[in-house]
Structures are given as structure tokens and as C-alpha cells.
Recover the amino acids of this structure.
């Protein structure tokens, strides 16, 4: 019996896929089809797939052409599959001509003609897009535009900055179709708004965008009071709009896996979380200006608050803050949280430098995430018996904003099938912690 194997993503299954499978089947008596996992696609930079792995497998199954379906999880698996299943022929479309010649050491390699004029990429482009209007043109906004290009169905359609000169420069540099002169013009040219303006303007802009009926992705820190955060959520919920805080760490693949791994108990009961984020900043920067709600807590606290709330919850007993002040802002703050059965702490700084790592301690072992842990791509689970230690690696491509943008678009387009990576309660509590600090609650100045 002649066995043939072929691989693909098979997203939005189309005629080109069908023709390829049919041709592959005709090369032998038994066809094995390898379908990539969602994680493997993510790892090799294909993060735009519309169908999940089960839907893609179902589509291949429905053709009746596959005698066996296997899943492709990692680079190098093809050789193992060929050996494991006793494959005679590896077949793939001619767009891969030459790329898989190395497999000829293990079986015959055949490049089959590709069907012209159709591809998943093309079909994805034809689907509804989400037009994003941006407010703000600073450094994070400049990183956001190139990152958004990696997310299918995300289109930056307009931009607004009350400073017209900066607006013109930004529009030119990134070729944004509409340079809005006011918010009305911005809203008229978008379905959703990304807010990357100075922190102290987040509340007003988010409220205005939601009232205009736009979904909102707001940069961190979201707002500085729990009441304001609650009000914004209420407006969003009443209008059926998606409100998301752009806390990039929460959306990156490694952090998601760290979360589920720890919830499954690999380090036992979690007893302590400690994380640091310090970024030395020019003293004249707005980030250190008290008039603009600058300071280390304001700028960086949402990052360590994420793992603290994710792993220990939001129901802490109290917090104490210890701040090194200069010109009325905290250049550095250490915060200590008391929970009933655990303790957490973080260090944030704009004028003091620390090691930017995170440790999560449990009754059976601990997790160490090296600096910069907030751009998680690697972590270690460590035990008393070092032979049991494990290292985990993940993709974190370029600026890493594409993951939050992908979730934002998915949440808007996939009605009702969505899980928020940062819950409403977590966002409300982050705003509350900012508020406690501003109100000098348990703040000790050094
Ligand atoms: N294929 C084909 N003809 C097409 C499209 C795909 O023969 N018009 C083949 C590919 O060469 C591959 C298989 O179908 O052997 C699965 O390809 P996949 O990457 O899943 O499909 P594409 O449509 O090429 O997807 P994308 O646009 O995301 O790259």
C-alpha cells in the first residue's frame, strides 16, 4: 500500500485545498493529512487564522479524502511522521517548491500544482474588517500601527491628536487614510477606538468613544478611580460594546500558559508573588510630572498587578506603599499586599533601577521569569530536586502588541464566544489601587 502525507492549515477551507487533497490522494492508496495546531501557527507567525484547529480538522474530514488526520505541533515533526507512519510520498503545493527537498532522504517528495486565484489569505482579506481610529500619536502609538498589520481584519483608518503638527507627521509617516481634526471626524471614520493619549485623558476619551458607539482599546493605566472604571464598563455593557485595556503582558502566549500551568497546581498552593518593573526615565519627562498624574505607580503598576491578581485574586486585606519621592512624584515605590493565605509585593520605578524579574512561590516549587518578565517569552518552573526543573519557551514577536490587538478584533467580531484575558474585576481593582495611592492610603514616603 502506497502512503501519501500532506500538511496545511486549511483555514477557511476552499477549492484550492480540495484540489490539492484530491491530487495528493491520487498519488497513492492511503492519504494522511497533517493539520497544524493553533499554537504551532502562532509560533511560525501565522496568527490570523479564522477557524480554530477543530473547525479546520472538520473541514478536511468533510472532504472524505483523508484516510487519517494527524495534528502538526512542532517544527521537525514531518520527518518523525514519515518514519512513524511508513510514508512513501510527501506531497505539498507548488508554492513550497524546493522548500521540502530535505525530506527526500526519507521518502519521495512531490510538489503538486497549486490552484490559481484562491488562498486563505485572500479569503481572510475579503471578510469584514474592523476600522480602528487612534487617539494619540506618541511612542506606543508608533509601535501599534506596524503591529496591527500582523492582525488580519484590523485596519487603522483614522488618527486624531489635538496637536495638529504631530497629527500631520504621524499620518504621513504611517500613511493613515484619515487625519481627523476633531473627535466627531474620527468617530465617523472608524468602528473602534484605540486610546494612546496621556494617562490623565483616558477617562474622558474612553467615555466619549463609548458614547459614540465605538468599541474601545485603552492603553494602561486605564483610569485612576474605581468609580470611573465602573462607569465606563456600565456604558460599554449597556451599549453592547467591547471595552478592553491594552495590558500587553496579559495577551502574550507565554503568560496565558503560565496562568493555566500554575492553576493546574504544578507549584502547589501559591504563597507569594513578587514582580519588578523599572524603566529609568528622563526627569523632565511627562511620565514624572505630577500635574499629568505621572510617577512610577501610575506608569508601571498595572504590570505587576496583573500576576498578583491573576494568581492570588483581587480580595486582598490591605496594601502598604513605600515611596521614594522627588518633585512630588514617586521615583520608586515598593508595595506590599496582605492576603489571608499569601503575600505579594512589587517594585516599580522611573528613577531607580532593579532587576526586572518575577518569582511566584508555592508549596511545591516556584516559577522564575527573568527580566523583562512583562514581555514573557520564557520561564522556568523550579523545584527542590533540580532534576525536575522545567524551562518553557514561547514566541513574543517584536513589540508584542499584536496579541492584544488580535484579541480585541476577535472580541468584536465573535459575538458571545469570547473570554477576557483581564477580567472586569481585575481592571476595576487596578483602578482602585491607583486611587488608593493617589489618596495617600497607607503610603509611606522615604
Ligand atoms: N493550496 C493549493 N492551492 C491554493 C491554496 C493552497 O494547492 N490555491 C495548497 C497549499 O500549497 C498546501 C495546502 O493547500 O499544500 C494547504 O495550504 P494552506 O497554507 O493551508 O492554504 P493557503 O490558502 O495557501 O493559506 P495561506 O493563504 O494562509 O498561506
Amino acid at each position: 500500500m502506497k502512503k501519501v502525507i500532506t500538511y496545511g492549515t486549511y483555514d477557511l477551507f476552499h477549492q484550492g485545498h480540495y484540489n490539492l487533497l484530491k491530487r495528493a490522494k491520487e498519488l497513492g492508496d492511503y492519504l494522511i493529512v497533517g493539520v497544524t495546531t493553533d499554537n504551532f501557527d502562532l509560533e511560525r507567525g501565522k496568527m490570523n487564522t479564522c477557524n480554530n484547529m477543530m473547525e479546520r480538522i472538520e473541514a478536511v474530514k468533510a472532504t472524505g479524502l483523508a484516510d487519517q488526520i494527524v495534528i502538526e505541533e512542532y517544527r521537525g515533526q514531518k520527518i518523525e511522521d514519515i518514519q512513524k507512519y511508513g510514508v512513501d510520498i510527501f506531497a505539498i503545493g507548488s508554492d513550497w517548491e524546493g522548500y521540502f527537498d530535505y525530506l527526500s532522504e526519507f521518502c519521495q517528495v512531490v510538489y503538486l500544482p497549486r490552484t490559481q486565484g484562491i488562498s486563505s489569505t485572500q479569503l481572510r482579506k475579503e471578510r469584514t474588517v474592523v476600522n480602528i481610529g487612534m487617539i494619540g500619536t506618541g511612542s506606543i502609538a508608533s509601535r501599534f500601527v506596524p503591529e496591527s498589520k500582523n492582525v488580519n481584519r484590523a485596519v487603522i483608518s483614522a488618527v486624531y491628536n489635538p496637536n495638529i503638527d504631530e497629527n500631520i507627521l504621524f499620518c504621513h509617516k504611517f500613511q493613515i487614510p484619515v487625519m481627523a481634526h476633531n473627535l466627531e471626524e474620527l468617530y465617523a471614520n472608524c468602528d473602534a477606538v484605540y486610546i494612546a493619549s496621556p494617562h490623565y485623558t483616558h477617562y474622558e476619551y474612553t467615555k466619549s468613544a463609548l458614547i459614540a458607539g465605538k468599541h474601545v482599546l485603552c492603553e494602561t493605566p486605564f483610569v485612576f478611580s474605581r468609580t470611573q472604571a465602573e462607569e465606563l464598563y456600565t456604558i460599554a455593557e449597556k451599549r453592547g460594546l467591547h471595552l478592553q485595556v491594552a495590558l500587553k503582558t496579559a495577551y502574550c502566549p507565554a503568560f496565558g500558559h503560565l496562568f493555566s500551568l500554575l492553576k493546574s497546581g504544578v507549584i502547589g498552593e501559591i504563597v507569594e508573588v513578587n514582580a519588578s518593573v523599572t524603566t529609568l526615565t528622563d526627569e523632565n519627562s511627562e511620565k514624572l510630572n505630577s500635574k499629568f498624574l505621572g510617577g512610577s505607580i501610575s506608569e508601571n503598576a498595572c504590570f505587576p498587578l496583573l500576576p498578583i491578581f491573576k494568581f492570588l485574586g483581587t480580595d486582598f486585606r490591605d496594601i502598604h506603599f513605600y515611596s521614594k519621592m522627588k518633585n512630588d512624584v514617586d521615583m520608586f515605590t515598593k508595595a506590599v499586599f496582605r492576603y489571608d493565605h499569601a503575600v505579594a509585593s512589587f517594585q516599580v520605578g522611573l528613577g531607580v533601577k532593579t532587576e526586572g524579574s518575577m518569582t511566584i512561590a508555592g508549596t511545591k516549587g516556584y516559577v522564575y521569569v527573568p527580566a523583562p518578565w512583562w514581555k514573557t517569552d520564557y520561564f522556568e518552573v523550579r523545584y527542590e530536586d533540580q532534576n525536575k526543573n522545567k524551562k518553557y519557551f514561547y514566541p513574543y514577536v517584536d513589540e508584542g502588541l499584536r496579541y492584544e490587538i488580535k484579541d480585541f478584533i476577535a472580541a468584536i467580531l465573535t459575538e458571545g464566544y469570547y473570554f477576557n484575558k483581564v477580567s472586569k474585576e481585575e481592571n476595576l481593582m487596578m483602578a482602585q489601587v491607583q486611587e488608593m495611592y493617589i489618596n495617600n492610603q497607607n503610603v509611606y514616603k522615604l
Observations:
- The mean pLDDT is 95.
- The chain is about 35% helix and 25% strand.
